[in-house]
Amino acid sequence: MADTTTTTLSHIDKLQGKVAIITGDASGIGEATAPLFADHGACAVVTANIQGQKLSETIGSHRCIYLHCDVTDEDQVKSTVESMVQIYGQLDIMFSNAGIISNSDQVILDLDFPQFDRLFAINARGMAACVKHAMRVMVEQRVDYTMSKHAVLGLVRAAS
């Protein structure tokens, strides 16, 4: 019979000592993810959104802090990453989750470009800004080995 205690414990602390930024944590996936990161041992979780610090207060200030960050503003994204590194000395995870859903079922003939531009500014450009600035820190931490192993996993899964 397998020892489930070891397996369970390894899942509980699989983020032990990791420092994470989660954007878009005010609701939905991000709101559900931030407590899980803390539960799985992340030593610090930064919740970054434009709606306030409700979640960081729930998780607890010793494990989670809130930084205001509008992902459509590259300077705010850069500042959030830099603040995280200044406070904790590292950044291991960027969970770029901020996103919105269009509030209408637009057809191409009636496309509202200001609404379209806002959607892309948050969902696509915001993601790119998060990746750009997080990678500046992570590359210094030599994540190339980790990336190569994830590539191998993807190859094996695709081949299977």
UniProtKB/TrEMBL annotation:
Pfam families: adh_short
Name by which UniProt lists this protein: Uncharacterized protein
Origin species: Camellia sinensis var. sinensis
Lineage top rank: taxon: Eukaryota
InterPro entries named among the record's database cross-references: NAD(P)-bd_dom_sf, Sc_DH/Rdtase_CS, SDR_fam
Alphabetized SUPFAM superfamilies for the sequence: NAD(P)-binding Rossmann-fold domains
Entry's family note: Belongs to the short-chain dehydrogenases/reductases (SDR) family.
